[in-house]
Amino acid sequence: MPPPVLRRLRVxxxxxxxxxxxxxxxxxxxxxxxxxxxxxFWAEGWTKRDPEEARGLLRDLLASxxxxxxxxxxxxxxxxxxxxxxxxxxxxxxxYPRRVVMGRVVTRTLRRGVLRQELWHxxxxxxxxxxxxxxDQNIVLWAWTQHRHYRQSYADLAATGRVRVIRLRHPREAxxxxxxxxxxxxxxxxxxxx
Length: 194
What we know:
By secondary structure, this protein is of the alpha/beta class. 41% of the residues lie in helices and 12% in strands. The protein has one domain (8-180): P-loop containing nucleotide triphosphate hydrolases (Rossmann fold, 3-Layer(aba) Sandwich). It has helices at 19-30, 37-41, 51-63, 98-115, 139-160, 171-180; strands at residues 8-13, 33-36, 71-74, 90-94, 164-168. A 5-stranded parallel beta sheet has the order 2-3-1-4-5, with helices on both faces. The chain is globular and about 55 Å long. InterPro entries: Cytidylate_Kinase-2, P-loop_NTPase. GO terms for molecular function: kinase activity.
């Protein structure tokens, strides 16, 4: 029996695990739209966008012609989505060991800080934030303190059976899984697109 067709995916996991990178690659392989939830829920100046406004933006993205063939959304934002993205065919959970996540988040944060790389809406990570003691102000500290929480939260989701959860425990597993994704067959001539 062939594996189920995946057209709508949520990629979740700890900060620095590679959610956006994997989601972008999966969207490319599937010919689907990529939706980065951080770009939706964060506004300029590292302020959180009004939740209703953000949900409106997300609804618009999901209704766009680009998302008609499917979508791959990355990010957690579970407390403010209010059911949006709950129709995913699967949740892809990057459940990497803490040492892998921490190595990635430190490297990424240093690179972004040194290069002054813009993330979205003019927001940039700064090296100064690495000195902050508050996890919500220091992405490395956030990843350290939230690791266990994300692991428990997504293990609980998987246990409910409400949605298919694809648990990837190492970047090698993620690469192998990504290689299994195939775009849908194009519609036959005269057949309406889904």
